Amino acid sequence: MSMNYSLRQQKAAETVALGKADMLVVTHMPNVRYLCGFEGSSGVLIVFQNKCTFITDGRYTEQAKQQVKNARVAITKGAALAAAAKLVERAGYTSIAIEAEHMTVGMAAGFKRLLPRKTRLRHTRGVVEQLRMLKEPEEIDRIRAAVRMGSDLLETGIRATRPGVAETQVAAELEFAARRAGADGMSFDTIVASGVRSALPHGRASNAPIARNGFVVMDFGVILAGYCSDMTRTIHVGRVPTDSRSIYEAVREAQQAAIDAVRPGVTVAAVDAAARTVLKRAGLARYFTHSTGHGVGLEIHESPRIARGVPDVVQAGMVITIEPGAYVPGKGGVRIEDMVLVTARGCEVLTFATKELVVV
Ligand code: ZN
Ligand code: ZN
């Protein structure tokens, strides 16, 4: 099985045509990779109505030859955007679509200066990201493999967690195990947050020692064959006070309610609301301070965002996280996160670690 680059390019070209542009200049590297397979860190993909040209520099001649699919490769001595401007001039195009969310103001101004005066830049948003929301079978296989590897790491994290050990030490054990298992890298900075720090939803591992008593939130993921995994488990060090147990069970119930709400046709806002309703009943709604989840794929945070007010509708083939939490300042926090694949009738939970409260 392989990635369907020609179909992806064709769909991107159609979207751009609807917006009445002659071509799309793709500068966001994950989008470049998605459309033509190039895994390097510098280059520009030009999507025309019926072909593509990938422009990069001499550092990537060999890599581009090996990786780029379905696109002509042009090696330039100067900047890729300058070469792109020459292409525009030669073709006589007047309307150029750019990725407004990824091109800096400086890049856009510089590009505009190189273009013929009559050329207009059209700002597009999410042209490629919309396509990336629905995963192809090969992508799902890769995501499954990444999630499996990620799930297997939890055991290492739990074993490393002891009072007095630095959070960074636990993160290091996890990351070392990931590399040994063959991960390309971690998909984001590993979060290990213990005791009162567990109430910081994005508390990166610090030099603080693991507290003698309290929650430890572990949020981590690997990149495997380009695809990310993302999971969170919260464990407890020492005897579990009754109120802490209640917080944990409420978050667990909220997470299950959101998973149960995932099926094609519902809005992502409804999935978010399912988690929030449970936490509200438990009196914890005000401690749930982030969205319920996000898409995952080539990047750790992709569309759709599973949150209030987002109009996106859940569709089969999406891979999203479900990760409600409750963070009580001065006490501690709990988050439980799984990755799920949306199926024809509901969803399949890909992450396979236990959600019983593990006590060490
Ligand atoms: Zn996470
Ligand atoms: Zn996440």
Globular, elongated, flat, extended or rod-shaped: what is the shape?
A: elongated
Considering DSSP H and I runs of 4 or more, what fraction of the residues is helical? 25-40%
One letter per element, helices H and strands E, the order comes to HEHEEHEHEHEHHHEEEEEEHHEEEEEEE
Instruction: Look at the structure and give the mean pLDDT.
Output: 96
Question: Could you tell me which ligands this complex binds, including any ions or cofactors?
Answer: zinc ion
Number of DSSP helical runs: 10
> How do the strands line up in the largest sheet?
4-3-2-1-5-6
Largest sheet: 6 strands, mixed
Keywords:
10 helices; 6-stranded mixed sheet; 3-stranded antiparallel sheet; binds zinc ion
Describe the protein.
- It is a single chain.
- The chain is α+β, with helices and mostly antiparallel strands.
- 36% of the residues lie in helices and 23% in strands.
- The protein has helices at residues 5-18, 29-36, 61-67, 80-91, 105-114, 127-132, 137-160, 167-180, 242-261, 268-281; strands at 23-26, 44-47, 52-57, 72-76, 95-99, 120-124, 185-186, 191-194, 214-220, 222-224, 227-228, 231-237, 293-295, 302-306, 319-322, 325-328, 332-335, 338-342, 347-349.
- The strands form 6 sheets. Strands 4-3-2-1-5-6 form a 6-stranded mixed β-sheet, sandwiched between helices.
- The longest helix is centred in the middle third of the chain and has 24 residues, at 137-160.
- The structure holds zinc ion (2 copies).
- One zinc ion (ZN) is lined by residues 230, 294, 321, 323, 337.
- The site of one zinc ion has 4 residues, from loops.
